[in-house]
Design goal:
Blueprint lengths: L1 H7 L7 H22 L5 H24 L3 H19 L3 E5 L12 H23 L4 H7 L2 H34 L5 H25 L3 H19 L7 E5 L7 E4 H23 L15 H30 L9 E4 L4 H13 L4 E4 L9 E5 L16 E3 L1 H6 L3 H30 L6 E4 L8 E6 L2 H7 L3 E8 H4 L2 H13 L4 E5 L4 H18 L16 E8 L21 E8 L25
Parallel strand pairs: 4-5, 4-6, 6-7, 11-13
Antiparallel strand pairs: 1-2, 2-3, 8-9, 8-11, 9-10, 12-13
Helix pairs in contact: 2-3, 3-7, 5-10, 6-7, 7-8, 7-10, 7-11, 8-11, 9-10, 9-11, 10-11, 14-17
Amino acid sequence: MKLLTTGLTLSFPVRTSGQVLFSIGVLSGVLGLEILGRAFTSDVQDGLGALALITLAGVVTFWHRRRPLDWVNWLVARVNRATVRLSKMKYEHGIDFRGTPLLPQRLPMFAWWITFGLLAWGAATVGVWYLLPGGWRDIGVRSSYVFYLLILLTLWSLLFAGLLAGLFVPMMLLDRWLRESLSDSDRRVILVVSGFAYIFAITGAAAYFPVAGVMAICGFTACVASYWCLRPGSAELALLWRSRPSGRIYSVPAPRLIAGAVIVLVIAYTDLILTGMCGRLLTNIEAEDSMPLTGSLAALVAWTTPGLIAILTARLYMVWRANPSQRTPPTLHVQSPRANDSLERITEIVSKWGFRVRADDGKPKSIEVGLVLVHPELSEATEFDPRWPLKVSLADLQAGTVRERFTRRDEIQLRRRFFRGLRSLLKQAKAEDRSQGGGYWLAPHWWFFNGLGREDGDSSKRAEDGEGSLRSVGPPFSSVFGRRARQHMHQVLRGVEVDVIYIEDGVQLKQLVQVFRAILEVYDVYGGQKRVDDHSFVGIPKVRVIVHDLSPEKPLVSVKYRQPKFDDLSRGRVLHVFRDRGDHEEVSDLPFDYSSEPSPLLMV
């Protein structure tokens, strides 16, 4: 069968005359398009010229694959050379979990060049539409029409991509929100109806309302993001970067990095809309304009921008609200028929302790501290092992003797919630992915870790350079742990200086729980003022726990235990939980026992 296929393959001999004639034909087509295009009056007719140019490019590609053209090879070589040069202009980067010692804060020069380039693009667009009535068409007719077509095709591609993003992102989020509460058939009906309604609303707004309001929204968003970008202050998480291997390392705080990305995105959308709107910011697009098709497409993109900005704002607010570094006050559940008369007094007392109050006749929730208000004679505030909800009197609350007990009870409940979530998380992750030869990344105290990360890779390759792919497995942290449990683990893990946890395949859940109990013990004994080290986990069977201080000056090197891949500039403390290999890395020389050796007798 292979011989038959090979025999039927057609090959065309390369002839110089054919190549020359074809190249002359291509050049004639370009010149003809250059001449005919100057007679067009709008971008609707330019669409036919763009279609002809695309067809001509397809013919050249088809011909070049069978009979390579020298001038195409020359162009491809120049493009590849430029691509190689651009690939060398990259920055080394990593995550800074520690923040100490302090590094100088500075944005990469590449970010400034992008920002200034986008601002120059917008200024040039405004100047062109102000000085020339025909805008970009006048420049194309007076210079090169084919070059104008290339720019127009690029602009149309960007506008079409922006329109797809503006339509797809809201529908994707709506689908994710409806998936948890509706069946597939009902969800599809709602998505179709919502999609058509959204398209109808955008089309109506683009037809009857000018885009000046959209430009005002973009400007306000850029101003707010600029305030956050220039706002002084320290952050517990930052991005490290340097321009060359031997260069100086700089730091960019995470809030400033996010604000800078928002600024660049908003300016890029604004420039795209200004470029295609034909200078009509206060009026609507008309059929007599020189570029009605481009202007209509830009108006559609413009009216999808408020929805994207609203979604981005809501997403950032949700990330900020769910950030484990935030502190949500604990809730005190009050249950007693007598509590209604004293509820205001109870709220006044416990609010000074940092507690919220919720009163009803039901049972407290799993993370609420229960309280039953009783007569002083029935109080159990001083009992060694009381039953919860705790029975206390108003005098006990006023004296403040139960404050530490309520705080400790809240910590215990949060830790129980964490261990329940940890068991559920690992069971679902292992049921979802049964592959071996890697490990899991666990960091519930960081906002950018949405779930358990799985790192796989070939065993021989990982043993050499530690490379592997990271993907999310199992349910998200927000559903298995909850917000307050993650906040408590943020306080604990930051106190003992553990930034990321790597769990090797083969480590049992029982041993992992013992590792976390050892972490909690160190935190409780030293009040979060002592970091854990390798000796903190001595005595846990069947595992080997190694704590590594990762930094650019201290690369991760291990012979016996396979390590995951890290960025070269990352700085933090990584806790590795490995299966015990059955021996030790240290070679211990035991002293020789001479007690059973016969000693010579002294003969006189």
